[in-house]
Design goal:
The chain has two domains: 358 residues, DD-peptidase/beta-lactamase superfamily (Beta-lactamase, 3-Layer(aba) Sandwich), CATH 3.40.710; 87 residues, Lipocalin (Beta Barrel). The chain is built from 13 helices and 21 strands. It is α+β, with helices and mostly antiparallel strands.
Length: 464
């Protein structure tokens, strides 16, 4: 664990150069994140837990292995596992029209549902065509809507009504709203409180003693919960927001509890355990819906890669919290990282890359790039301002400094060095985006194309 604490890695490293020394405590300070907790899985077992920092910035209560964090969208695979258990118990059907089973509320019919229906499989895999990507939560002390008020967007609900906006089954469209429908479905089918249902179907069987869907968090649990923090590191008023959208975002948990969940998924996938689901159902859960079945969302998890590089991933983002968990079922490896700060996604990725390197994961390590020498006179040709026509007040500035190219974006004040892979193509070590300068027929630089890094390709025009 010490090597992980001192071995965080950026997304890109330069071949032949020493790896940057990135310590967890220093990166937490860089991102204004008071606390983080990490669980590492190796050889199908919990290898260890590393907890660093404070529950609240400026306080004196440390993060411990049993400190609770909001898991946000990591709630979804936990919910999916419970729903699939009910399928195996014969109480639900994966491909049945859920309106035939819903009792307290029905999905409004429309021309979009004439030929294709909303099913549990589609709701769990984000292919049901439902609205509402995610939820904003509710500040402590404000009114908390009921589930029916959330579904129909009635006060005090602060999200849009949950409706069908695409033909069900036509394509993937991430929808936290779809999981709220699942929550209502499970309530109707079992006549049980959602927290009690999850405790009976998942938490109890897997000994997840530090996990709960109780929202608001009871006072006896609040005393060991990490408080959420803004991008600037300021504590959220009241400590955190309340998320009554339990199935989509309401889980409180710890990395070690979630590691137990991942370990069960991996063992069941290999036919070594069936504590909750049979190996056949786990395979069904992890099968990517649509496409060739090897990449995309299954029921709760994102699936990517094949063979030893097959990975199942899910990240979470609630107000003041960021979390991520990943597992490699073939190798029995994985990790869970939870942070109590808005910039935690970047920190979590740095942690995971360090773990990938330390444990020899088959994927998720940093990308290696080869650096070449470029004539400084060529670099000078790239200097100037580049703008998008729709956003002229937020230019990208490129300057040359000591035979290096420096990129600065006015919108966020971000500055990064660009390293040459060729005379026109550059990269930075802080993201996987690539930067390609475009010349006209006369060889004059007229634009800059940026691509990759999980975002779309953008072409910005050179103005001076």
């Amino acid at each position: 664990m010490k090597s992980i604490e001192e071995g965080l890695l950026p997304p890109v490293i330069i071949r032949g150069q020493p790896e940057p020394l990135m310590r967890l405590s220093e990166r937490m300070e860089h991102y204004n994140i008071p606390g983080v907790s990490i669980a590492v899985i190796n050889n199908g077992e919990l290898e260890g837990v590393l907890s660093e920092g404070l529950r609240r910035a400026g306080g004196d209560s440390p993060i411990k292995p049993d400190t609770l964090f909001q898991a946000a969208s990591i709630s979804k695979p936990v919910t999916a596992m419970a729903a699939l258990r009910l399928v195996e118990d014969g109480k639900l059907e994966l491909d049945q029209d859920v309106n035939e089973v819903l009792q307290s509320w029905k999905i409004p019919e429309s021309v979009l549902t004439f030929d294709e229906r909303v099913t549990l499989r589609r709701l769990l895999s984000h292919t049901a065509g439902m609205t509402v990507h995610g939820f904003n939560g509710y500040p402590i002390g404000e009114g908390i809507p009921t589930l029916l008020e959330i579904l129909d967007s009635k006060p005090p609900a602060n999200s849009e009504p949950i409706r069908v906006e695409l033909v069900p089954g036509s394509r993937y469209e991430y929808s936290g709203g779809g999981y709220v429908v699942v929550q209502q479905l499970l309530n109707d089918i079992t006549s049980m409180d959602f927290q009690n249902l999850m405790a009976e179907l998942v938490f109890g069987p897997l000994s997840m003693q530090n996990s709960t869907f109780l929202q608001p968090l009871p006072n006896e649990e609040s005393s060991r919960a990490a408080e959420g923090h803004s991008l600037s590191g300021e504590p959220i008023i009241g400590g955190w927001y309340v998320y009554p959208e339990l199935a989509a975002a309401g889980l409180w948990s710890t990395p070690s509890d979630l590691a137990c969940f991942l370990i069960e998924v991996m063992k069941s996938m290999k036919g070594q355990s069936n504590v909750i689901l049979s190996p056949t159902m786990i395979q069904e859960m992890l099968q990517a819906q649509g496409g060739d079945g090897t990449w995309g969302f299954g029921m709760g998890f994102l699936r990517a890669g094949e063979g030893s590089a097959l990975q199942i991933i899910i990240g979470g983002s609630n107000q003041g919290y960021r979390s991520k968990m990943v597992a490699f079922p073939e190798t029995g490896q994985g990790a869970v990282v939870m942070a109590n700060g808005e910039a935690g996604e970047e920190l979590n990725n740095e942690v995971l890359r360090g773990i990938a390197k330390a444990y020899g994961w088959p994927a998720m390590g940093p990308i290696e790039k080869t650096l070449i020498d470029v004539d400084p006179q060529i670099l000078d040709q790239f200097v100037g301002d580049y703008i998008l026509p729709d956003y002229p007040d937020f230019p990208i500035n490129i300057r040359a400094e000591k035979n290096k190219l420096i990129l600065n974006t006015k919108a966020d004040g971000e500055t990064r060095e660009l390293h040459p892979e060729s005379d026109t193509r550059f990269f930075s070590t802080v993201s996987t985006r690539e930067y390609t300068f475009i010349r006209d027929d006369q060889g004059i630089v007229v634009a800059l194309e940026t691509s990759g890094g999980g975002g779309q390709t953008i072409i910005v025009q050179k103005v001076k």
